[in-house]
């Protein structure tokens, strides 16, 4: 069964800003200890659903959110680590109400599979630690600045939700948007 999640994607302008952040991060000595997320897969997960056999009920539940209102996602202030130190990310704020509407709509239709109801933590993943190693998170250099703390502030209008199927296998995961819902009224 495929792994499924509901996400929003950053605008092209925000992706360009993130490309600059990624270039700085990838120039650090620790960069080879991370698997970098490809820019075309950058997204903010609103609801992870786990393995799902039937996508039609999820699409129907999400369709009830059409026209419910756009939001603004704000990235920043800088890249950093999620708790546990294995995921390098940029925090994202402003999406809690949208994530709550998605969760409530899926719950109302009993569409959230067991184990697929993780709490929302607004972030956009840039990279993950390779294997079991945890990259050095201590400050480096004469300035005392941390290699992983790169300023990044941007915002984008969230006018659409995406139901995404993630397929794991050899190489990086493959993401396919299987359903879209327009939020703007």
From TrEMBL:
Entry keyword annotation includes Electron transport: no
Domain Phosphoesterase HXTX: 10-66
EC class: hydrolase
KW RNA-binding (keyword) present: no
Active-site residues from the entry: 43 (proton donor), 123 (proton acceptor)
Motif (HXTX 2): 123-126
Residue positions of motif HXTX 1: 43-46
Domain of life: Bacteria
Catalytic activity as recorded in UniProt: a 3'-end 2',3'-cyclophospho-ribonucleotide-RNA + H2O = a 3'-end 2'-phospho-ribonucleotide-RNA + H(+)
InterPro entries: Cyclic_Pdiesterase, Phosphoesterase_HXTX, RNA_CPDase
Keyword line: Hydrolase, Ligase
Enzyme Commission number(s) of this protein: 3.1.4.58
Entries under HAMAP family matching the protein: RNA_CPDase (MF_01940)
Function field: Hydrolyzes RNA 2',3'-cyclic phosphodiester to an RNA 2'-phosphomonoester.
Protein name per the record: RNA 2',3'-cyclic phosphodiesterase
Organism encoding this protein: Aciditerrimonas ferrireducens
Lineage, broadest ranks: Bacteria, Bacillati, Actinomycetota, Acidimicrobiia, Acidimicrobiales
